[in-house]
Specification:
Layout lengths: L1 E4 L10 H16 L3 E4 L5 H4 L5 E4 L16 H6 L4 E4 L8 H13 L3 E6 L2 H8 L5 E4 L11 H4 L1 H14 L4 E5 L5 H9 L5 E3 L1 H4 L4 H12 L1
Parallel strand pairs: 1-2, 1-8, 2-3, 3-4, 4-5, 5-6, 6-7, 7-8
Length: 218
């Protein structure tokens, strides 16, 4: 699983998100790698009909109807969105909310990716059986220093923690991944995929960097 979080980077603002997603579609098809993209929330509708999975960057524990300004998973599903990140380090939420949202996405048969900062959180939230646990040490996010090189033991321990909790949830590795070598190393350590952001979005040549990452995954 190759997840790209676009955050609110200017590089994919406006119509540029369409080109970005089309590039990912081409790479996904060419290398037979599952790619999912989480665009800025206001651009989800622009690319929701993509042939690859589109994710929300965040969802709210709120109800359908008279709730203003909340991101509602039921409505996202109706717009062909596949799932969502939950508890990203830049948008942390409470344990109670995480539990409710994982259960909600399960009910809706949507993908849940719970972001965690350490092994303890990985073990705790893997018990909820989300589809993925993404481990990202906050201090390495956007640093260009990959967790697979800086803290390789973190991936190994997190993979073991997730596996001990259940056999369904898969581990994704995030934070500082900027090269195919980083991707390969993460896989060797037990990661079943990656969660990346600036390493892809801010690259000058999207086709080249996505190709490098995809090749490293296969």
């Amino acid at each position: 699983m190759f997840v790209i979080n676009c955050k609110n980077y200017e590089e994919i603002s406006g119509e540029k998100i369409v080109k970005f997603v089309k590039t990912a579609e081409k790479i996904s098809k060419k290398f037979k790698v599952k790619i999912a993209i989480a665009p800025p929330q206001h651009l989800i509708g622009v690319v929701a009909n993509s042939s690859i999975q589109i994710l929300a960057q965040h969802i709210d524990d709120s109800k359908i109807g008279s709730t203003t300004g909340f991101i509602i998973p039921e409505l996202l599903k109706n717009s062909k969105v596949s799932g969502s990140l939950i508890n990203h380090s830049e948008h942390r939420i409470s344990s109670k909310e995480i539990k409710k949202l994982v259960l909600k996405l399960k009910e809706l048969k949507m993908i849940s990716i719970v972001c965690v900062k350490d092994v303890a959180e990985a073990k705790k939230y893997a018990k909820l059986e989300p589809d993925y646990i993404a481990i990202e040490p906050p201090e390495l996010i956007g640093s260009g220093k990959a967790v697979s090189k800086e803290k390789p033991e973190l991936i190994t321990k997190a993979a073991m923690a997730v596996k001990s909790a259940n056999n369904k949830t898969k581990l994704l590795c995030g934070a500082g991944i900027v090269s195919g070598e980083d991707v390969s190393k993460a896989s060797e350590l037990g990661s079943k995929g990656i969660l990346v952001a600036s390493g892809i979005v801010k690259a000058k040549n999207w086709d080249k960097i996505m190709t490098e990452f995809a090749k490293s995954m296969v």
